[in-house]
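anyone seen this seq b4? input:
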Amino acid sequence: MITPKLIILPLFAAVLTLIITPMIRKMSLRYGAIDTPDSRKVHKMPIPTSGGVAIYIAFLFAVLFFNRPTPEILGLLVGLTIITCFGLLDDIFDLPPATKFMGQFLAALVVIYSGVRVEFISNLLQNHSTIIDLGFLSLPFTFLWIIGITNAINFIDGLDGLAAGVSGIAAWTLGVVALMSGRYDAGVLAFTLGAAAFAFLPYNFSKTKKIFMGDSGSNFLGFGLAVVSIMGMVKIAAAFTMLLPMVILAVPILDTLFAIIRRLIAGKSPFEPDSSHLHHRIAKLGFSHKQTAFIIYTISLLLAVVSVISLNIGKKYSVTLLISAAAFLIFGAWALGLFKAEIKPLRKAKRLDS
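predicted toks r here
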């Protein structure tokens, strides 16, 4: 159902992002929030960062147009404020991983306390729609989901427009599914989040006014997607709770999973960066940075279509479709070498560091 709020709030967030981003760019240059190039990064010149603050401000003001915000929405806004502040500090001062995790932990606790929780999941082994009550596992499951998706978006933020574009596609897909499932408020939140992310792209791709979203942006988008996915789908008794948002967010989830696997095999920290992410591997095939981003956009769009189609067919076929899509992605990742790429260079780097 299309209502004025569903149009006005996303439009307001998009326009506000376009207006605020140049201001944030000037402030980033003034206060030293600059991303300097290194051997792992694709840019060659220092670029102002913290553009995510503009996305956050635009989303915050747009959502405040909600009439009588629910405790869940207020919890989301407070959590996003915490996560963005820690991200901004990281953009400026390069915080240690433990400090960044503390910010994610606090933000997740606020959201969980407000009532956003994964309370049950579907039993995919039965032909009829049944759910499994997570009970005491609800809290740790919700916490891991929020922290995992937050870091997954952060991990893929290594190419112009990649994190913003993939997040925008995922957010709008979550919005469509939420509306189809009767979760109107979650749908509006998702469309507003996606609109703000898409509006950031012109500056992210710009040659003369370029700005990165930084950790303030990637953490904001990841956290927002994680919470909205719970509010929009996981809390309803859908036929495949959790499986559907996993497929919608499959690109960042699988890319992060493969990164952790190859780093552990190489004897490195799971949080230590490398140059073997999906976008790195596609770029090494000869594609430009922009072409690489649009290839990953296409993959995300296909997953979005699969997810929406799965809502309109029977459970047996929908689960088969979603699992097939995930299997195809895993096979494609294996073919690209995402499990083992750059392991030798990582080991060499470890010897050089010691």
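The chain has one domain: 4-353. The two ends are 60 Å apart (CA to CA). kinda curious what u guys think
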